[in-house]
Design a protein that fits this description.
Layout lengths: L1 H11 L18 H7 L1 H7 L25 H9 L1 H16 L4 H25 L1 H4 L6 H29 L6 H21 L4 H27 L7 H16 L9 H26 L1
Helix pairs in contact: 1-3, 4-6, 5-6, 5-12, 6-8, 8-9, 8-10, 9-10, 10-11, 11-12
Length: 282
Amino acid sequence: GRSRRRAGVRALVVPQCRGRHAVGRSACFPRDARAAAGPAVIAATARDDRATTLRPPYALSDLPRPKLRGAVMGYLHRSKLWYLVASCYVVAALCAAPLNIGDAALRLAMASASSLSVLTSHGYHNPDRRRAGDVTPESELFWLRWDYIGISAILSTQIWLWAANLGWTTGLPTVAALAALATASISTACFTLVPKRAGHVAVKLTFAFQFVGLLGFLVTKAIFSPLKACALIYLCYLPGFILYATKWPKQGTFGYHEYFHVSVLLGHLVSMGFDLGLLLAA
């Protein structure tokens, strides 16, 4: 009877959604399974109109996963659009001016770091968009570690590229070396300390050192150089990193982390555009 059909619906709900964030029986019920089960299942789940919008919480922290968390990175990954943009940037840089191996490697490194960040961000934030059962602590920890490394790599490769564009003037070789050391230390912390609290704190303090200390120093040098316009790159990244650090605003649909993603992508695009402009003007 009706009670048996409802019991069948409850038995099919994925385990990750039985915690305190699973509001409604069908919050994480696989759409293809509902369709296969037929009209009885659809009728039993229709009462909760949020069934297709709620997402399972993060497996490691049990924090809620906002509706649009990872949506931009997921789209760029699935469509391959960002990988195309990064590849076109490298090809355009090679065609715009004769580059030695070192200068070409800097452009390739920056494009690769941005692509790695898109991939790892999608992997970390969107396991539930791939297939049911992917929201596990083991899988989440794997992607979280590489997501941290990807963010650090973005900062380091930006520092290296613009240190080179500024002619490796006084202090910039040291800044570039410290950036490499910071990324190496974050990689070590990711695989030895994360997901412990000490690991998260160490990683985020190192991010602050890279962004405020190292990239901030480079931007200060740029302001007093003929390339002062490239300080706009820092201004594109700045709002996102402030919101990332303060974890504000916290919203169920589009919050601080989504603004961070948009800010980082905008910074990448502005950096690529300025760099190509410099090469074409050379």
